[in-house]
Fold this sequence. Notes:
By secondary structure, the protein is α/β, with parallel strands linked by helices. The chain has a single domain (6-270), classed as Rossmann fold (3-Layer(aba) Sandwich). It contains 11 helices and 10 strands. It has helices spanning 51-58, 81-90, 98-101, 108-122, 132-138, 155-167, 185-202, 213-216, 237-242, 247-253, 258-270, and strands spanning 6-17, 25-36, 40-44, 66-71, 74-75, 91-94, 173-177, 205-210, 222-227, 230-236. The longest helix is centred in the C-terminal third of the chain and has 18 residues, at 185-202. The two termini are 27 Å apart. The model has no long low-confidence stretch (mean pLDDT 88).
Amino acid sequence: MADKQNLFEVDDLHVVYRRPGEKPVAAVRGVSFTLAAGETLGIVGESGSGKSTLAKAIMLLQPAAGGSVRFCGQDIFSFSPAARRAYRNDVQMVFQDAVGSLNPRMTIRQTLDEVCAHSRRASQEGRSPRSPEDLLELVGLSRAVFDQYPRELSGGQCQRVSIARALAADPKVLVADEPVSALDVSVQARILNLMRDLRRNLGLSVLLIAHDLAVVRNVCDRVCVMHLGLFEDAGPAEDVFASPKSDYTKSLLAAVPDVARALAARNAEVA
């Protein structure tokens, strides 16, 4: 990835939660990393490690207490309102709770029509926003779901709709915060394979947030292992799995890699 342009350059990022009458909590304590064009980077750690807070800071949903985040060479914390809107077309988020992230009163057609209309209004640089039909095809859903509501779909189908919605603006980066943790193992494997295919076919970069290394093992180019707001390990995925540096990373690796086995079995069936 060294020969590719860095889309994100995060340097010494700090995020602190401050609540009246309570001691400040340092959720992110000076992390640094890059994300290259076409790369998938995994941020892995237990609940409370700071990984979701990191994602929120990158999405401008949580203020930073220090450090910098540059996107395509521009400091995102100094963006004007117009620049923030453009940034949020380029960097889209996929949430853990796919069902909860969709409007329960809108059909899938209405959800995708709305986001496609918004993307057409916000389109810049000659990019061509996709149609709802194109979006469903990209994520492997049939048009039969168009007139259904989120409650009528499975968790895996809802996550595919969420990914389709995120792709409407033709983003450069997907920030996926625990996108498969609410799904069973076989469905996790399908969604992870989908994200890998989208990265390859669309040239997307992906920042994948997860709580266990098994989820990112077969889909990430590099992995950062996060614990108590810091990176315990970071490097190419193969190196982190083969030679973990910290006891914390070793403990994560001790978990049975069910998702990795499911991915391997499913890929063997396709072959």
